[in-house]
Design brief:
This is Beta-ketoacyl-ACP reductase. Belongs to the short-chain dehydrogenases/reductases (SDR) family. Pfam families: adh_short_C2 (PF13561). One of its GO terms (biological process) is bile acid metabolic process. Helix 4 links the parallel strand 4 and strand 5. The relative contact order is 0.14. The chain is built from nine helices and seven strands; from the N terminus they run E-H-E-H-E-H-E-H-E-H-H-E-H-H-H-E. The protein has a seven-stranded parallel β-sheet, with helices on both faces. The model has no long low-confidence stretch (mean pLDDT 96). The chain is an alpha/beta fold and 255 residues long. The protein has a single domain, classed as Rossmann fold (3-Layer(aba) Sandwich), CATH 3.40.50.
């Protein structure tokens, strides 16, 4: 057995109270990391996560911020530094603005702006706030949550896909810019993932979608979190610039 040990590491997860984020938080803590739980409005879920992290014997900090604002992220950075005395070793950019999908002709321009702000600018702001400390340390992990939609380009996905494809370009450039400092920059691209919402609603089975997936099932939130924790660990020390679909083979990047 090859263990993943993040003891002594501090991890920030944005959108930590979301369907995927909450499992990432718990899994990072189970691997030994202290966790910064970012939220924008879901204070109750964040408080619950904090208790779960602390029950594992890890330190947890709640931080509220609008991730589309550099000033808010800078404030968050200062709160983190004041609490831990240092900045995170691992940053997981998971938050995204939710909106109603429709066709390009009917989609509001504001929806494209929200996706650019939450997919691209969030990562610019996080990089400016947290990468300098990683550069000084000579090590770090930036992990972004992308989507299989970036490769599907299906009708109705335009704003989301545009934002995530912009994020992909940013991450590839960042990987080349900060690699010499021992920082890895990678993306995890979930498929249509089973989360707590599906379990509560009994909607885990989606036959039409599953029929297109080579593994003939949907993935789980835990499987997404497992990939995030792998990328955060020393096991992925020579992996950077990667776009890793965790979707049962539903999309496959070309070479």
């Amino acid at each position: 057995m090859i263990p993943i040990d993040l003891t002594g590491k501090i991890a920030l997860v944005t959108g930590a109270g979301g369907q995927l984020g909450r499992v990432m938080v718990r899994t990072l803590a189970e691997a030994g990391a202290d966790v910064i739980i970012h939220y924008r409005s879901s204070r109750g879920k964040a408080e619950e996560l904090k208790q779960q992290v602390e029950a594992l014997g890890r330190r947890a900090l709640l931080v509220q911020a609008d991730i589309t604002s550099q000033a808010e992220i800078d404030r968050m950075r200062n709160e983190i530094s004041g609490f831990y005395g240092e900045l995170p070793h691992i940053v997981v950019a998971n938050a995204v603005v939710q909106y109603e999908w429709t066709s390009v002709l009917e989609q509001s321009p504001e929806d494209y702006i929200s996706q650019f702000e939450s997919c691209v600018l969030q990562n610019v702001y996080l990089s400016k706030a947290f990468l300098p400390a990683m550069i000084e340390r000579g090590a770090g992990r930036l992990i972004g949550i992308n989507t299989e939609c970036s490769m599907q380009n299906f009708p109705g996905q335009s704003a989301y896909t545009a934002g995530k494809r912009g994020m992909d370009g940013l991450y590839r450039v960042l990987a080349k810019e900060v690699g010499e400092h021992g920082i890895t920059v990678n993306q995890v691209a979930p498929g249509w993932t089973i989360s707590d919402r599906d379990r509560e609603e009994g909607s885990e089975l989606q036959a039409q979608y599953e029929s297109s997936v080579p593994l003939k099932r949907r993935g789980t939130d835990q499987e997404i979190a497992n990939t995030v924790v792998f990328l955060a660990s020393d096991l992925a020390s020579f992996t950077t610039g990667a776009f890793i679909p965790v979707c049962g083979g539903n999309v496959m990047p070309g070479i």
